[in-house]
Design goal:
The complex is a heterotrimer of chains A (330), B (347) and C (495). By secondary structure, chain A is mainly alpha-helical. Chain A contains 14 helices and four strands. The longest helix of chain A is centred in the C-terminal third of the chain and has 27 residues. The longest helix of chain C has 16 residues. The chains are: A mainly alpha (330), B mainly alpha (347), C alpha/beta (495).
């Protein structure tokens, strides 16, 4: 059945609907607290949401292939702790090297998930539930449960994400660059197209010579790489590394994807959707204190939004489909 | 034509000549995993006796049961749910919600029995909501319960924030701390009784058979006239009720409620279930297996406690165990298939 | 004669319990259309999968231009110039037409990125070449079944290949579209491509093929020029005996109306379905794949809600809301997809047989296992099931015996009306005959059978009356005495 109503079209073009809701929310919050919509404050809110945006875009790729990566938050904590300890041990390392190192550690952690999914054939939910606690446990092992505090970190380690360029932080610019890069990756590379194919119809993918497991592995590596990079950025931005860094953050990442219209059944979704889903959650988080609601509401609101979003997704995905009777006959 | 058939399948016989083996080899196959688990239980038991001379003391053993009984009680309906191809990640959050509801009722002056009923009712409603959304809109259980996992705990945070509910009535402590007979605690006895009930429910009743049918092939189950949605809804509600029961026991045992109560328990419950031989993809598993797995996890955790291993390191163990118990049978099956193929082509 | 461009020698492929291909051979010549003929289960689809690198053969040689090659993956087939149009819908509904066409050979621009502008233009050209009027930018899911099929043609033609495999390409096409397809096949042939054309429709084999190769039960039976054989020769090679023996339909006395359906409609799948079913009758439903027959049957069984119309069963209004309602009132359904809808492959035979009537075999919820086993044994014996034990999982049985389990499970509920959807699809000849014989016995005992079938000989051999469906509506009705193959096919194709 085709959606001919305007609302139907909006729902089928999830990004527009979500974009409109975000603009409406901004107007609403701006009406109550005008300072919230000043460029400076918005830039700050964006900076605060940057990590979530990157993780959501990477998670989207995993979900496209009918998998899920619940270990991203533990990956952030472990990689963050690794680079923090590395920084303590080798204070002279340039920040860029640290960034590359964090990406490398992240890829290794992601690839471990990917190998178990691809070559062993364990369902991704089980693998990443397992590695979620394993990676988190390793943070304790390598740190001995101790914190690495701001005064132990070198200035250049701390400076990278905070430096500003054209009124936005480097962290924000990295998020924009990662989002654009992943957009180009999904739309204009063979690997990107294959990822959609694998999730859309795994059987047909095999017939087209596409190795399903290999592409699932690739998405886990990408998710791991982005999570690893975010591990450094997180520890550097908040200037502290400890065992509970980013606990339960994976739920927000998955929530951002679901809100952004990424189908958990695989094969459907866009980078813009994932990014807007993350911005939506970031907006709620930053707007709640402004309009006088306790931050304790945040968890429940994101839970409620996930549930509502999957219900709406399931409705819009069921439209369309095969029909035998011809239109003209009716 | 007959000859053709027989030639193609030299093993086959007419049904009339078949032995009446109700307890055929498919049962034996099922029992193998349970045997392996028993061996591990024995090893863990022996190791614990070596670590601590006090381990064999009846009171010490009784104390050991407290750290897994509440999780084990949720593992029973969770096993049925996973056999039926579903999963519920929101159980720990349901405990938090039910516990907060009890704490709130306590401030309004509810008695111990009322508190228990409220905890169970809240759990049941939470489970029903999961099941209703999942079956009504046909959405994968995993996303919905990830959502309600944040929603239920989120509500607990909204109600309680940084606060703690304490000062439960002294009678209420019986559920989680009371002893029925000698060293036998109330909650452990409850678990033993429920395990027997679930064993019968899954293995002897039409309901249990339908759960297996749904888990092996939901479409064919539907085409066989089974009301699949109603069964799934019932299972989610049942898991919710049992999370409520666990909330009553846990709250009574520790005597306080924080919104972070039972954090991460969903992982441990699911690990118990799959360690017990329940296939994470549905369709296979037994209550006996889950029962033994509960003891195995309890013994190992207790042993690590004796050696002063911190909780977070135990989670490494839990995570590895989860991956290993699911990965090993998959690799083993692939190995068997490869061997079968080779012997077939060798004919 | 010129050299074959592709030659298979002694190719074998074994699955657990089944020898799908047993030392078969095949030659394809440039500029010729070779028909691969065989019954369901003869090994045709397995051969296609071997040729396209999806299955690795256990033994034998594949030669292309006289040089041995190995096929490890689908990409190898592409490299060797083999492209295939598969029978099953192996396309991507969520991707656009262009993305589907170029799923495994894209154009890139100077930056190494995919050049969608060029690919859209090429897609347009290809679709024009095929005379298909679809927008290359829309998602595939918005197309009709026939158009999707043509897009898969475009995908196969987008790679320059010397060998084109077509696995039952006309199954879902209308008469007009089939004529278009023939033109295309001839054009490809004239361009010098070697074409493997898999079909079990004799009219099209004689219309466009130059050579034939026949398989039976996974074995090579014979090959040669089409001009040298008659249809009867081919049939004899396919089944290994003459056709008339296959359908043991006995004349039965047909009684009063058991079920009547009036004006049954669904918003998008079928409309205005009217028919009566009488006691002791086999009512055939014929039509092309996707004509809406299974959808109607699933509505009768309470699986699909209907928008209007009424039904009566045994003189009482019949409005099943779930399959359970239908079973309670004596109507059961043996679905087309045996492996996914019919049987639960990973459960034992006896549990499959007793599943629909567990309630009757239990006391206050507890299963009486001894009685359960007795019931299973009774029906397994009646259907001459071949198995090593009733506790064996259904997945270990041959296709024919799996079908017997599914039929047995429904007979055990003592129904009045049994709907069988493609009852002999993909099962071996022996079991096929057993299923047909059993259907004859059922109607002799006073049951009524609705048989959905796409096999014309089966419909004509077994049915007392035939209803032909086309695009969700009843196109024609035939009595046993006035049905002819031509009239039925004409009605089914809407010509």
């Amino acid at each position: 059945m085709k959606n001919t109503s305007l609302l139907g079209k909006m729902i089928s073009h999830r990004e527009w609907l979500l974009g409109a809701i975000i603009v409406l929310m901004l107007m609403g919050v701006g009406y109550i607290a005008p300072f919230f919509v000043t460029p400076g404050n918005l830039a700050e809110a964006f900076d605060d949401t940057s990590i979530l945006i990157m993780l959501a875009c990477a998670q989207m790729l995993v979900i496209l292939t009918r998998c899920i990566d619940l270990s991203v938050a533990s990956n952030i904590a472990l990689t963050g702790m690794c680079v923090a300890l590395f920084n303590v041990a080798y204070p002279d390392t340039p920040a860029l090297v640290t960034l590359i190192l964090s990406i490398g550690i992240g890829i290794v952690l992601g690839a471990f998930n990917g190998i178990l999914v691809w070559l062993v054939g364990i369902p991704s939910i089980v693998v990443t539930l397992g590695t979620m606690s394993v990676y988190r446990g390793f943070v304790f092992l390598i740190s001995g449960g101790e914190w690495v505090n701001a005064h132990e970190m070198t200035p250049q380690f701390l400076a990278l994400p905070r430096a500003t360029f054209l009124d936005l932080t480097v962290l924000s610019w990295i998020a924009i660059a990662v989002t654009l890069a992943l957009f180009v990756f999904t739309r204009f590379t063979k690997t990107g197209l294959s990822i959609f194919a694998v999730g859309g119809n795994p059987k047909a993918a095999v017939y087209s010579g596409i190795n399903v497991g290999k592409y699932q592995f690739i998405t886990f590596c990408i998710s791991g790489a982005v999570a690893g990079m975010c591990g450094y950025l997180w520890v550097s931005r908040y200037a502290v590394a400890y065992v509970e860094v980013a606990v339960a953050f994976e739920l927000q990442v998955v929530a951002a994807c679901v809100i952004g219209g990424i189908s958990i059944a695989g094969g459907i979704g866009t980078i813009w959707g994932a990014a807007l889903g993350a911005i939506f959650l970031g907006l709620i988080k930053n707007a709640l204190p402004v309009i006088g609601i306790s931050p304790f509401w945040q968890l429940a609101i994101s839970g409620l939004v996930i549930v509502l979003a999957v219900i709406i997704n399931s409705r819009s995905e069921k439209c369309g489909g095969r029909r035998i009777l011809r239109e003209a006959h009716q | 034509m007959m000859n053709e058939e027989v030639l193609k399948h030299p093993m086959t016989k007419d049904i009339k000549d078949l032995p009446d083996n109700l307890n055929g080899d498919w049962r034996n196959k099922l029992m193998r995993w349970e045997t392996l688990l028993m061996v591990f239980v024995a090893i863990a038991f022996f190791t614990n006796t070596q670590i601590s001379p006090y381990f064999l003391d009846p009171w010490s053993l009784s104390d050991a049961t407290f750290n897994f009984t509440e999780k084990a009680i949720i593992a029973l309906p969770m096993a049925l749910l996973i056999i039926a191809r579903d999963i519920d990640l929101s159980v720990a959050s349901t405990i938090a919600l039910a516990s907060v509801a009890m704490g709130f009722a306590n401030t309004m002056g509810a008695g111990p029995i009322e508190l228990a009923l409220i905890g169970m009712a809240v759990g049941t409603v939470a489970g029903f909501i999961n099941g209703w959304i999942i079956t009504r809109f046909d959405i994968p259980a995993i996303v919905v319960t990830i959502g309600t996992m944040s929603l239920y705990r989120g509500i607990a945070y909204i109600v309680l924030g940084d606060d703690v509910y304490r000062s439960y009535p002294s009678d209420f402590a019986f559920f989680g701390q009371g002893y029925v007979w000698g060293v036998l605690s109330f909650e452990f006895l409850l678990f033993l009784c429920l395990a027997v009930v679930f064993g019968i429910l899954l293995h002897k009743t039409t309901f249990g058979r339908r759960v297996y049918a749904i888990g092996n092939n939901p479409t064919a189950a539907l085409f066989s006239g089974i009301n699949v949605k109603r069964h799934r809804l019932f299972l989610f509600t049942l898991v919710g009720l049992f999370a409520g029961i666990a909330a009553v026991l846990l709250t009574s045992r520790i005597g306080s409620t924080r919104p972070s109560i039972a954090m991460g328990w969903e992982l441990e419950v699911i690990t118990m279930v799959v360690l017990g031989g329940v296939n994470i993809l549905g369709g296979a598993g037994s209550i006996v297996g889950v029962f033994i797995a509960v003891f195995l996890m309890g013994l190992v955790t207790f042993g690590m406690g004796l050696m002063n291993v911190p909780g977070i390191v135990m989670s490494i163990f839990t995570g590895c165990l989860l991956i290993l118990v699911i990965g090993t049978p998959i690799i083993w099956r692939r190995f068997l298939n490869a061997r079968k193929m080779r012997s077939n082509s060798g004919e | 004669m010129n050299r074959p461009v592709l030659e298979l020698r002694n190719i074998s492929k074994t699955f657990p319990g089944v020898k799908a291909l047993d030392s078969v051979e095949l030659q394809l010549y440039p500029g010729q259309v070779t028909a691969l003929i065989g019954e369901n289960g003869a090994g045709k689809s397995t051969l296609v999968k071997v040729l396209t690198g999806i299955y690795a053969p256990d033994g034998g040689e594949i030669l292309i231009d006289d040089a041995p090659v190995t096929m490890q993956a689908a990409t190898d087939a592409k490299r060797h110039g083999i492209s295939a149009i598969h029978q099953e819908a192996v396309m991507f509904d969520e991707l656009t037409v262009t993305e589907n066409i170029f799923i495994n050979n894209q154009n890139r621009n100077i930056f190494g990125l995919l050049d969608w502008k060029l690919m859209r233009k090429r897609a347009k050209t290809l679709l024009e070449y095929l005379d298909v009027n679809v927008d290359p930018n829309i998602p595939l899911r918005e197309l009709s079944v026939a158009h999707k099929h043509l897009v898969s043609f475009a995908a196969a033609l987008s790679v320059s290949s010397s060998i084109v495999i077509m696995d039952e390409p006309t199954a879902s096409l209308s008469h007009h579209e089939i004529q278009e397809l023939y033109r295309l096949v001839r054009r490809l042939r004239d361009e010098g491509k070697a074409i493997l054309f898999i079909s079990h429709k004799f009219d099209e084999i004689f219309e466009i093929c130059d050579r034939y190769t026949v398989f039976r039960d996974g074995q090579f039976v014979g090959s040669g020029g089409i001009a040298d054989v008659t249809q009867d020769d081919l049939v004899a090679m396919m089944v290994g005996r003459t056709v008339s023996q296959i359908y043991p339909k006995e004349q039965t006395t047909i009684g009063d109306t058991v079920m009547s359906v009036k004006g049954l409609s669904h918003p998008s799948e079928f409309a205005d379905i009217d028919f009566d079913l009488r006691k002791g009758e086999i009512l055939g439903f014929y039509g092309l794949v996707g004509a809406g027959r299974s959808e109607v049957m699933q509505a009768l069984f309470g699986l699909t809600p209907t928008s209007s119309g009424s039904m009566e069963l045994n003189g009482k209004p019949f409005k099943p809301r779930t399959p359970g309602d239908a079973v309670d009132q004596g109507l059961v359904y043996v679905p087309e997809d045996r492996q996914h809808q019919g049987a639960i492959l990973t459960l034992p035979i006896f549990q499959n047989i007793t599943l629909p009537q567990l309630g009757g075999l239990s006391r206050s919820g507890f299963i009486d296992m001894a009685r359960e086993y007795d019931v299973a044994r009774e029906y397994a014996t009646r259907l001459q099931l071949k198995a090593s034990s009733l506790s064996e999982n259904v997945e270990n049985l041959s296709g024919g015996n799996q079908q017997k389990v599914v039929i047995g499970k429904w007979l055990a509920t003592n129904p009045n009306v049994i709907i069988v959807d493609e009852p002999t699809k993909g099962i071996d000849i022996g079991s096929k005959a057993a299923v047909h014989k059993f259907m004859g016995e059922l109607v002799a005992q006073g049951l009524s059978v609705i048989m959905v079938s796409s096999e014309l000989p089966e419909v004509m051999g077994m049915a007392d009356r035939v209803i032909v469906m086309h695009e969700g509506r009843i196109a024609a009705r035939f009595e046993r005495d006035d049905m002819t193959a031509e009239a039925i096919v004409t009605a089914a194709t809407g010509a």
